[in-house]
Specification:
Elements lengths: L2 H14 L2 H6 L10 H11 L5 H14 L13 H18 L4 H24 L7 H10 L9 H19 L10 H26 L3
Helix pairs in contact: 1-5, 1-6, 1-8, 3-4, 3-5, 5-6, 6-8, 8-9
Length: 207
């Protein structure tokens, strides 16, 4: 696998962490977004790069570009901010998937969102329903900084797991085409499911 291919797969995994939060909550109807187009972008991200996937990306971006979201002022709440950041990451990926700069931007967005959730949990006046489990997870970590929150730590763990695994994937295969790739996606989905639970709790408690 080339460096560019590895960067592309890594960016796809960064996006996949936030797939569940994007679709678990309805997007604002005023944004005019077609969920099926967003889903197709995630599917393309997990496919092997090539003319077919590049064409699908261009088609999806073209369809999204006419949405009201991109011509109106938005004042998002917490859930919507995560959705908007994820959509922006999808577009960055779709428009320049083989660019190291684009891959880095997608990665930075994913890392920032994880820290954003930790900050909201810390600032909340309410106890997180999984507070004890989060503390136990952080206490059991064998390495990594001690001053990070739960989601930042989970994010780093998923990223660490992917480093060696990506190099073992067939160079002409997408993430959905191998057991190792699907296992990496499953880890991202587990992260996303926890993010959904926390976002729902934040919304219910007034964020």
């Amino acid at each position: 696998m080339t460096r560019a291919q590895e960067q592309r797969q890594a960016a796809a995994l960064d996006l996949w962490r936030w797939r569940a939060p994007l679709f678990a909550f309805e997007t604002d109807a005023a944004w005019g977004l077609d969920p099926s187009v967003l889903r197709s972008l995630f599917h393309v991200a997990a496919q092997a790069p090539g003319e077919r996937s590049d064409g699908a990306c261009r088609q999806a971006v073209s369809a999204l570009s006419t949405a009201e979201l991109f011509s109106s002022e938005v004042h998002p709440d917490t859930v919507q901010l995560v959705q908007l950041e994820t959509i922006a990451g999808l577009l960055t990926f779709a428009e320049s998937a083989d660019s190291s700069y684009a891959a880095a931007r997608v990665s930075e967005t994913s890392t920032r969102l994880a820290s954003y959730l930790d900050g909201l949990i810390e600032d909340s006046l309410h106890s997180h329903p999984s507070e004890e489990a989060h503390r136990a997870y952080l206490a059991a970590r064998a390495d990594g900084p001690n001053d990070v929150g739960y989601f930042a730590a989970r994010h780093a763990a998923v990223e660490s797991a992917r480093l060696g695994a990506l190099r073992l994937l067939p160079p002409d295969a997408g993430l959905l085409d191998s057991a190792a790739g699907r296992a990496l996606l499953a880890q991202c989905e587990e992260f996303g499911a926890e993010a959904v639970t926390t976002l729902r709790w934040l919304r219910e408690t007034g964020y």
